[in-house]
Amino acid sequence: MKPIKKAVFPVAGLGTRFLPAAKAIPKEMLPIVDKPLIQFAAEEAVAAGIDVLIFIVGRNKGSIPDHFDKAFELETKLAGDNKHDILNIVRNVLPSHVDCVYIRQAEAIGLGHAVLCAQPVIGDEPFAVLLPDDFIDAPDNCCLRQMIDIYNHNHCSILGIEQVARETVNRYGIIDSVPVSNRLSKINAIVEKPPVDQAPSNLAVVGRYILTPRIFDLLKQTKHGAGNEIQLTDGIAKLLKEEIVLGHQFTGKRFDCGNKLGYLQATVEMALQHPELKQDFGMYLQDLIGKGI
Ligand code: UTP
């Protein structure tokens, strides 16, 4: 089996839950303290050994290629001002061996369609998919690494899964599965955003996937589903009738930064870990709580 070397970042969604902020700026460029969501996801992929990053972009996403590109004027100014620490941060957004590819999704007709747009660059290889708005705080940024380790032993598609509150299952792809080991399950069925009383479990698929290239043919046959979009979940439902698909309950804490509450929670928790801020921000929060908010 070929190793996983390419990762797809579908970032062409409209981000309507973050309007008006997401009107001209992609929600994936929103910062958690001082680093945009998209960079956290890119770093997670690089930490897992990925060396080709494929961004599926839409209109108004020009700041994403700008972010990963050289910033000549800024770098010259910082060098001239001897601000070498900041210069290094700006220069080392990605290591030099990593390549970025940008593909336009002309119309935001669903995550499944966005993944299909990557086929010309992926070809006949297994690959990773990361949704940057699912921000995962894990030691050494290792969520995708955990999944690639499992792939290297099992050579099949792997989905990142976690238990969610029963009343929230209608926001996720939900699986029906049998346990294989402590954190691993074999997925028998998957359904996108089921009504709470019809969900097969409370195990939800979150924004980390390793997929075999067979998914592309299946996505081509997939019709518009929930929300009138071409859903990745519907393609995976076809895939697991042909191939083994495993679910991995990763270690790490996930924040749904596609919604405002999850984004604020991630911001607060990361600020409390930030070397420059944790002390002052922690005191500020304690003070605020002391005043009885
Ligand atoms: P979401 O369901 O979060 O949709 O997409 P969205 O449009 O980004 O945000 P809301 O719901 O309007 O607030 C999940 C992921 O799939 C990508 C999004 O960019 C996000 O990373 N996506 C979605 C695409 O790339 N293309 C699409 O057509 C749809």
The named CATH superfamily of the largest domain: Spore Coat Polysaccharide Biosynthesis Protein SpsA, Chain A
Q: Structural class given helices, strands, pairing? A: alpha/beta
List how many beta strands DSSP finds.
13
Average pLDDT number = 94
Q: Can you tell me the overall shape? A: globular
Any ligands, ions or cofactors bound here, and which? Answer: uridine 5'-triphosphate
Give the termini distance in whole angstroms.
55 Å
Name of the CATH first level of the largest domain = Alpha Beta
Radius of gyration over C-alpha positions, nearest whole angstrom: 20 Å
**What fraction strand?**
15-25%
Shape-level CATH architecture of the largest domain: Alpha-Beta Complex
Tell me what the structure shows:
The protein is an alpha/beta fold and 293 residues long. The protein folds into 2 domains: 6-258, Spore Coat Polysaccharide Biosynthesis Protein SpsA, Chain A (Alpha-Beta Complex); 260-293, no CATH class. It is 34% helix and 24% strand. It has 11 helices and 13 strands. The protein has helices at 37-47, 63-68, 72-80, 84-91, 111-116, 119-122, 143-154, 214-220, 232-242, 260-271, 278-290; strands at 6-11, 31-32, 35-36, 52-57, 99-104, 127-130, 134-137, 157-163, 173-179, 184-192, 203-211, 245-249, 253-256. Strands 8-11-9-10-12 form a 5-stranded mixed beta barrel. A hairpin with a 2-residue loop joins strand 2 and strand 3 (35-36). Helix 3 (72-80) packs antiparallel against helix 4 (84-91) and helix 8 (214-220) packs across helix 9. The chain is globular, with a radius of gyration of 20 Å. The model has no long low-confidence stretch (mean pLDDT 94). The protein binds uridine 5'-triphosphate. Uridine 5'-triphosphate binds at residues 10-17, 56, 105, 108-111, 113-114, 131, 133, 258. The site of uridine 5'-triphosphate has 19 residues, from strand 1 and helix 5.
